[in-house]
Protein: Aminopyrimidine aminohydrolase
Amino acid sequence: MTRFSEAAWAANAGLYETIRTMGFNEELAAGTLKLGAFKHYMVQDAHYLEAFGRGLAVAAAKADTADAIVQFSEAAKVAIIVERELHEEFFQKFGLGQEEFQATPLSPACHHYTSFLLATCWAEPYPVALAALLPCFWIYAEIGKDIHARAAKDNPYQAWIDTYAGEEFHEAVRAVIATTDEVASRQTEETVAKMHLAFKRATQLEWMFWEGAHQERDWSVG
Structure:
């Protein structure tokens, strides 16, 4: 029987390739990404990680095994810790202050993505919440590995690349995939179909998030 993760990845392989080869990631790998675009990304990613941590905490509360409660509670903790490290390390390196971060609202893409994640985690059953959360883990791991393999020498964004290409992160991603597959194997066809829809939407929003950062999009009205 095909695992949920295998089917979901195969169904969205073309979308992943679009993400892998999009301008933001091509330029990030080459070290030519505009500093403004990277700053936009870093600020929005810090906003996103806080919401992602909340979504993981909700998933932990809905988990159907003690091990999964621990797994997603720890993942929520790590998401918040990473956000704080972004403030201290990346923000300092790229000239971003705490006041600038606090004064910058969520971009349209970040607002859309975080609203989708939180609404899904709160309103949908545990398996669908996992499917919505999984693309962020998995796509970042694959993009990090891909960029690491082809990154230009002396890349100014090497620290970011190393974070998502590291084995510690990949080990955590494999664990989330395994949990999602195990949970999916016990669901009805209807629930699995909802899981696929959530996985696809989150994958689309991954593209939208990076594309918005590349274009430095903000709220152009009001």
